[in-house]
Amino acid sequence: MSLSIWLGALEQGLLWGAMVLGVYITFRVLNYADLTIDGSFTLGAAVATRLIFAGGNPWLATFLAVCAGAVAGLITGLLHTKLKIAPLLSGILVMIALYSINLRIMGQANLSLLRSDTIFTWMRHIHAGNAGPSLLGLAAVLLVSAGLYLFLQTELGMALRATGDNEQMIRSLGVNTDGTKLIGLAMGNALVAFSGGMVAQYQGFADIGMGIGMIIAGLASVIIGEALVGTLTLIRCLLAAVTGSIIYRAVIALVLQLGMPSTDLKLLTALIVIIALALPLFRERLGLKARRRERGEQIAQAERGNQSF
């Protein structure tokens, strides 16, 4: 593979990094299976693209995309906490609703940013050259990671983490778990929409189907990163999410270079997640077999010792 392909995978991994961090917040920290992500990613892209297409400031458009994603997460949280709808179903309902909303925002299924100024155009104005997407993606990932690291160590952040670990215990201590869920879902979907807005400007268009399967891609990235980097500390958890995003995009680029049809990428992603989720079970079974074998050898040795007497 040429160097340009690896650099492209690095760029995409960094630009999708905010999305993976958003998935980490909902899936790992909050322990909430949030399918809103598929819709909020497209929502961020739709809002940013529509505003830029209308002549708006790209930075303001990106910020409003983040706000739109936060609102989507809040709606999912309200459906769950106030109407007592199951977490999975609440995310599905908002995701379905966002499909129509995104179409309304864009006005069509595909909206191009050809000849429009974007945040990447601004990078070229400051002579960043071809490194503009990588620099912006790196800056975004560092900013988001630092913000999450500081927030998750505050009293509110600790309450958010405790809600995901043991909701009943933290509620018995007087914490409003409904509030922490709303905050976590809003944060997670805001980051996903932020990534969607950047990706749309990077690609030069927004498409109504660009968010399909995004939750699986995010989970694959988180699981791959955790397997390689580990989860002993909060810093390593955040680093694992970003590392997994880059590695996942590199794997996709490698597979495409080997001739795999692009239409099979969703299948490949699903297989990666299945294998990664099944690994702990396989390790446990292998360890159990090894312990049984060791125990059998000890019993056999003891029997041979008794016979010698």
Q: What this model shows, in words?
A:
- The protein is mainly alpha-helical.
- It has two domains: 3-260, Orthogonal Bundle (ABC transporter involved in vitamin B12 uptake, BtuC); 264-309.
- Helix content is 78%, strand content 2%.
- It contains 13 helices and two strands, in the order H-H-H-H-H-E-H-H-H-H-H-E-H-H-H.
- It has helices at residues 3-15, 17-29, 37-53, 58-81, 87-106, 119-125, 132-151, 155-165, 167-172, 177-203, 214-229, 234-257, 265-308; strands spanning 110-112, 205-207.
- A two-stranded antiparallel sheet has the order 1-2.
- It starts with a helix and ends with a helix.
- The mean pLDDT is 88.
- It is found in: Cell membrane.
Short description:
This protein is an all-alpha fold and 309 residues long.
